[in-house]
């Protein structure tokens, strides 16, 4: 298939490349219902107006546009969609502009739930989850930030001590009790 260049009024250029050949073996007819099961709305009611992509703050930076992902969901292209939803910032601008009241952000969240259950988990999700059980937050505390806080006469961020250890233990108990550690693949971090 060919390459097309889309030129916006502002002069911004975007290359559109469609090189995927799709056959019936890739279609899963029940995929739209599965999305509803995990909290998304019925993608079959999407009008394909493009408003979601037009207002998406990251749509010009990503290969898969919101409108395209919704179309793939309508077709039942589960395997093609499961790796694309992680770029959604869940800002809900798409929902504000959707005439069909679909809420594409909630569809993306449902796709995340499905992807995790299918084992399609990007490495950054595992790192964030491992950091949560180790440090109580999704990013590792930075010693440089602690130094800057001291220079600015700000309180220390509680990252050590008995109270902090208690919080980390509670997080680990919760993560294990709900099975999140097994689901996301961080059992070893919870045991440590």
State the gist of this model:
This protein has helices at residues 31-37, 51-55, 66-75, 78-81, 93-96, 104-118, 123-135, 143-151, 162-177, 180-184, 187-191, and strands at residues 3-7, 13-17.
Whole-number tally of structural domains:
2
Structural class by SSE content: mainly alpha
The CATH superfamily of the largest domain is Alpha-helical ferredoxin
Rg computed from alpha carbons, rounded to a whole number of angstroms? 21 Å
- Identify the CATH class of the largest domain: Mainly Alpha
Strands side by side in the biggest sheet: 1-2
Shape: globular
Q: What is the total tally of β strands? A: 2
Strand content bin: 5-15%
Task: Give your account of this protein's structure.
With 192 residues, the protein is mostly helical. It has two domains: 23-118, Orthogonal Bundle (Fumarate Reductase Iron-sulfur Protein, Chain B, domain 2), CATH 1.10.1060.10; 123-191, no CATH class. It has helices at 31-37, 51-55, 66-75, 78-81, 93-96, 104-118, 123-135, 143-151, 162-177, 180-184, 187-191, and strands spanning 3-7, 13-17. Strand 1 (3-7) and strand 2 form a beta hairpin. The longest helix is centred in the last third of the chain and has 16 residues, at 162-177. The radius of gyration is 21 Å and the shape is globular. The N and C termini lie far apart (51 Å). The mean pLDDT is 85.
